Each structure stands twice: as C-alpha cells, then as structure tokens.
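Good day; I would like, with your permission, to put a structural problem before you. I would ask you to consider whether the tokens describe a fold that such a sequence might reasonably adopt. The full record is reproduced below for your convenience:
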Amino acid sequence: MDASSTMDPELIAALFENGLMGVEVPEAHGGAGASFTAMCLVIEELAKVDPAVAACVDVHSTVVNNTVGFWGSEEIKAKYLPLLATEAMGSFCLSEAGSGSDAFSLTTRAVESADGSYYTLTGQKLWITNAGHAGVFLVFANVDPSKGYKGITCFVVERDSEGLTVGPHEDKLGIRASSTCPVILEGVKVPADRILGKVGE
C-alpha cells in the first residue's frame, strides 16, 4: 500500500467490522467501551505490521473519537459516536499553512449567521490525516480573531457539506498509505448545534 500511496478500502472496512475503530467508544454508542490502554495496545500491534494503518486508527480513535466523547453535547455524541465506531472515519482539521506548530495563529474563519442558527466556515487546512477517507471532520476555526486564541472553536462538519473539498493526497516520504490531504472550506454552513464544547473554548 505504501508503494501506491493508497489504503485498501477492504482493509478500512475490516477495521470497522472488527471493532478497531471504536475501542474506547462507549458500548451505548456502538463501541467496545474499553480503556485508553487497550486502544494503545491495538495501535501498537497494528504498527508492527503497517505504521500507516496504525496512524489512521490512532488519529481516528484517540484524537477524533475522544474529542467528540469528551466535549460533544449529548446530541452530538448520540449522532456521531455510533457512526465513528462503525462506518465513518474521522479527521482532525487543525493545521494550516501558517499554523502548524503554532495552532493559535490559524486563519480559518467561522462567521455566525444573523439569527445564530449556523456558522459559515471559510479557510484551508493542510496535512490533514485521514482526510481522503473521512466522513466526519472536526474543523477548528476562529469566530472572533480580535480575541486571538479565545475565538478558536471546533465544529463537526460532514463530508457531503456544500463547499467542503478534499484536495489531492500528499506525496510523503514515508507512511504513504496514510491519507494526508488539504481540506478546503468555501462558505461551508454548519449548524450552531454542531460545536464541540462552547464557542471560543
């Protein structure tokens, strides 16, 4: 897979079928309800065979699933955790061209609608793991740049959202089968109830 820079779709399906994408997700939401230590052991065993697969599962599970589980409302958890545990890969969209290690300087904007029912996201994320296969994206955007990092907010964005585009796969030196792509947001409207935590937090 590394030679062709592609992840076998049948392998991705098998990861879900064998419960490896929902190890820490509570049983009530379709997961195994196991511990973080158990998740680490799964990733370690996968890495012995293929680091690209381990990276895919790691970001999906320990970053995306846990972020939704820790900060999602009950409604968000009820809707997205079962999907993430059984069929939809997750992607964590934080890095940008000018804000890799300095995440606080991200420039992606989220503008609240006049009636407060939705936000419009505009910007570009780079080097996003799992982007090529993801069905659910956690996108970080600033709702009020005048407040600096205190304006940064995380939104749950679905892949079929109008205005969301996944760019071409990055041609990396290693772990090539792990999908790493830019994610472009051009006026993507996201309901206000898909914010993780609170605005600016």
